[in-house]
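Any chance you could type out some protein's one-letter sequence along with its backbone structure tokens so I can compare the two?
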Amino acid sequence: FILMLMYLTATSSNTNYDFIYGGQDGAIANLIAIPLGIFTMYLLFQLQRRHPEKTLFEYAEAILGTWLG
């Protein structure tokens, strides 16, 4: 989780093109994207804690059913 958090913050804040071409909108987009990425990682972490012996595809099948999973 910590490695993914560092990756998200580094890639979202080090892209100068956001600030050059987007100005303030680029900064706002980064501020929105970082919490969404952290929330996604939190969900994946909680699913892995509940299904420790399964992969992502195996517990997707267990949660959503055979057809959707």
Observations:
- Residues 24-50 form the longest helix (27 residues).
